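Sequence, please.
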């Protein structure tokens, strides 16, 4: 199948100068540095806080929760550990500490979308799959990427997403049809192929919401993360799915990493100035520059998996200098909702540093 890396211009002579802002490329696949600072308006931050709790309630309704000690959604998962090695392109794009220097440890959580703890891997509600990454930084801190296997999202705003979940939770077919008919992004999401990957390590994952990357020279670009499985994407046919066990993905990953590491390229698709950076429903065209920011090598699963999953909080706004949020309101809404779900899960206060 076609690889996202076929779009990568890494290695072509103009890229370094381009990322440093020394030249502005205008041909196909090019972006321009982004002028001016970006901040999330305070009003937007305030507006999403009630919505976040209501969203977690809506997930609970949809998945007959709350389920004690479990995530409200993406409930079933498995951890893997390994390393991340950045490329020179990453260092040129952003001054972020993990984009410079040697290999650092990573903890990755793969998951299914469903909020049911007993979810079956081959079920429709298992899509999209999740891939959350925690980069462990040299100073003892960490930074996260939270991605899923659908390139896009059913709603552009937290309020619309909440409404979508409530409509789904009502199980009223005519309400659901009316919502889909008036929300094209939700319609596209609902119509997307419902595939089961052969392995968590053979699926693409997308960060969806944009960030602003700033390098040592002060030049900024907007970009969106992608994780490309180096083994290639591979999906099961309907008969194969029927023959699989309910937990085949965790079983496969444990077995896989005993034999060979699961590897992913961390890619960043760069926006052109005309591309919307505040709306995750709007997929940027395929001809946009995609840089290869580094490689994740996962070579082990963990023994105390359930306890560690419960204690881990991944959020899209757990950031470091050199990577800032875009004005996409989902970033704040997601971070708040993940925290609500986390606090309900562990019953304690989270010590999250991005507030
Ligand atoms: C406003 C939009 C969204 C809301 C309100 C939301 C809400 C949530 C909540 C409440 C959780 C459980 C977190 C926890 O208990 O730790 C979660 C998990 C997750 N979400 Fe979202 N989500 C949103 C959008 C997205 C998007 C756009 C993506 C993918 C790019 C995504 C991917 C994931 C993943 C992978 C997890 C599992 C995190 C983990 O492994 O701990 N979500 N989401």
């Amino acid at each position: 199948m076609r690889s996202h890396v076929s779009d990568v211009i890494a290695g072509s002579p103009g890229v370094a100068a381009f990322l440093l802002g020394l030249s502005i490329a205008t041909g196909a696949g090019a972006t321009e540095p982004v002028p001016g600072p970006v901040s999330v308006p305070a009003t937007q931050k305030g507006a999403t806080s009630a919505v976040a709790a209501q969203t977690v309630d809506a997930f609970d309704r949809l998945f007959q929760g709350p389920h004690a000690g479990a995530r409200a959604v993406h409930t079933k998962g498995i951890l893997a550990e390994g390393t991340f090695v950045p490329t020179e392109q990453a260092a040129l794009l952003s001054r972020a500490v993990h984009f410079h220097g040697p290999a650092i440890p990573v903890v990755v959580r793969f998951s299914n979308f469903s909020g049911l703890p007993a979810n079956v891997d081959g079920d429709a509600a298992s899509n999209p799959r999740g891939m959350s990454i925690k980069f462990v930084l040299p100073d003892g801190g960490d930074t996260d990427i939270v991605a899923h296997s659908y390139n896009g999202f059913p709603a552009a705003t937290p309020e619309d997403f909440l409404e979508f979940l409530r409509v789904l939770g009502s199980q009223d077919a005519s309400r659901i049809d009316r919502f889909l008919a008036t929300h094209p992004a939700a319609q596209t999401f609902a119509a997307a192929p419902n595939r089961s990957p052969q392995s968590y390590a053979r699926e693409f994952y997308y960060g969806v919401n944009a960030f602003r990357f700033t390098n040592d020279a002060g030049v900024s670009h907007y970009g969106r993360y992608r994780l490309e499985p180096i083994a290639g994407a591979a999906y099961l046919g309907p008969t194969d799915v029927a023959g699989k066990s309910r937990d085949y993905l965790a079983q496969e990953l444990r077995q896989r990493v005993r034999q060979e590491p699961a590897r992913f390229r961390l890619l960043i698709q760069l926006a052109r100035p005309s591309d919307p950076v505040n709306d995750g429903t709007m997929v940027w065209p395929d001809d946009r520059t995609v840089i290869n920011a580094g490689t994740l090598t996962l070579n082990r699963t963990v023994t105390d998996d359930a306890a560690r999953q419960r204690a881990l909080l991944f959020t899209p706004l757990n950031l470091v200098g050199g990577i800032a949020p875009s004005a996409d309101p989902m970033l704040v809404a997601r971070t708040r909702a993940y925290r609500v779900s986390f606090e309900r899960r562990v019953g304690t206060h989270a010590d999250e540093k991005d507030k």
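The pocket of protoporphyrin IX containing FE is lined by residues 55-56, 59, 71-74, 77, 109, 111, 130, 132, 146-148, 153, 158, 161, 207-209, 280, 313-314, 330, 333-334, 337-338, 341-342, 345 (CB under 6 Å).
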